[in-house]
Every structure is written in structure tokens, then in C-alpha cells.
Design a protein that fits this description.
heterodimer; A: 84 residues; mainly alpha; 3 helices; B: mainly alpha; 2 strands; globular
Amino acid sequence: MDFLAQAATGITGNIEELKGALALIGYGAAAIGPGVGIGVVVGNAVQAMARQPEAAGMVRTNMFLGIALTEALALIGLLLYFIT
Amino acid sequence: MEPLILALECDPAKPILCVPPSVNELFETPTIFSIGSFGVTRSMLLMVLAALVVIALLWAAYGRVRLVPTKFGAAIEAVVGFVQNETSGVIGPEGVKYFPYLLSLFLFILVSNLFGVTPFINFPVTSRIALPMFLALVTWFIFVIVGFVKNGPGYLLSIVWPRSVPLGLRWFIGFLELISTFILRPFTLAVRLFANMVSGHLLLTVLLGSGIVFISRLDLKSITGILWLAFGLIIYPFEIFVAVLQAYVFFLLAAVYIQTSVHIEH
């Protein structure tokens, strides 16, 4: 007997709740990459500022740019949680 | 055993405790009055209010030219000077042309975002997708038109056929760049601001709201409420920071996008 079909017939609870839980796991997965990414961006920016304090202004601008571009992925994950 | 997270019994007189509102209901504002068939909602009025606040701030600072600016005028001047520095730093000397647009963009988004943490208003207007999407589309039109006016058809060619990339990979990078420039840029620009404001508003509502509900029970479970409330009050200054940062990021990215259209890569 097909295992998936057996599993599907076994589900009797609220399907909407299951979908919400799956979307929540998806959001958690979507936050892993940007979390690592923002860490790398900020860590390297701090290192650059420490090595060359006179370039701090330029580094800070580019750091925020990098954070904003990386963070968008996590936020798309958050939106997908609400619209599914 | 009664679950610990349940603050109050389900009371039919207060349906909000039995069926909590969904996210959509939190961000929908009812029609206040209508002119003909055109309904005016609270968020529309707040948008107009944000524009009026920006005009009033600049009017109060620059309306009458003084030799020595007042304290308030000097504060506004510092903000305007910051935007001007960033603009000319990103775009270069040609940035003067785009400075008025970028300044009004920055100030309008800043005031709209800060509405989310202003007492008695408590609603960031930019947490409704219409406003960020409109601002992103305006920015998109500006940088596309500037690209074609400055560089002619060479603008499109520089995107789909980048000369700095090895020949074998050029068509692929060109394809990616085409999608990224014309579709993903306005989308991510709008969604970044929108999602930040939505999550901030939700976080504050959930933490402070549940804190109040728990504390109003006035028994042992109120301790949980104090924790929620304290955490909400910690998040509150963070939300002010996020509001300012997102306005800055939106303005900075708009400037960067305009810069890539002014100076195309050869």
C-alpha cells in the first residue's frame, strides 16, 4: 500500500492549522540564510572599520546596503507565511 | 489543567478573546466618510497628514531665511545636509538634480514609518503595500527613464550584454541582470519597507496587547503579562531605530539605482 496515501488518510485534524505550521517551518528555514549573511556582512564591516577607521563612513553606508539586500530574503519568507 | 498561555476565559461579550483577529483585520481601516463613491479611510488621512507634517517641518525651518538659524532650523538642516551628502556621495556631482526627489522620499517615508510608534496614531502608513509599491514604481520609472535619456539604447545593451563579463557567460549574466533590474528591483524595494513595517507593527501589537490582557487579570498569571509588557517596551525603541533605518535604506537604494542608470558599466 502506498505510504503517502496511508499517511494522508490518517490526517483527520484541522488542515488549515497544518498548513500554518508548515508555513511557519518554511519561514524558519528562510531565515537561516539571511541570518548567516547579515552576520558575515556586519562582521566584515566591523573588521574593516577597525583596520581603517578613516574609511568608517563609506563602510557603514555599504554595510547598510548589504544588510538591506540580504534581509529582503527573510522578509519575503515572512510574507509567504501570511499569504499562504 | 488550565493552559498557562490562556489569559482569560472565552467571554462571548468580548469576541476578540475567543476569535483573535487575523493579520488582515489589523491592517484594514474602515471608511470614515465618503465623497460620492470615493471612500476615505483612516490610512488615507494619515498619508495626507504625513505629507503635511513634512511640509510643515521644512516650512518652519526654511520659510524665513535667517542669518543665524534657530535650534529647530539647525536640526532640520542637519537632516537635509545628511541626505545631500549621501546623495552626492553615491551619485556624484550630478546628484544635485535628483536631490529634491530623494529628500522628499526620505522625509515622507521617515514620517510615515514613525507614525507606527507615535502615540494615538500607532499605525505605520507604509505597512500597506499600496504606498511602498507606488513609491518603488515612481523610483523605477525615474531610473529607467534617466537611463534611456542619458545613454540611449546603450543602457539596455549594457544590461543584457555586459562587456566586463567573459564571453561564454555573458548571455546568462545579461539575462539575470535584465530580470534583476526591471522586475526584482522595484519588487524588493517595496517589499523590504512593507514587510519591515508589518512585522514591527505586529510585534508591538502582540507583545503590548497580550501584556495588557494578562495584567488586567490581576492574579498569578499577571507576572507573565509583566514579562510581555517589558519585552514590548524593549522592542519599542528598536522599532524607532528600524523606522529610521528603513527610510534611510529606501532612499539609499533609490540613489544607488539612479546612479547605475547615470553611469552605465562599459
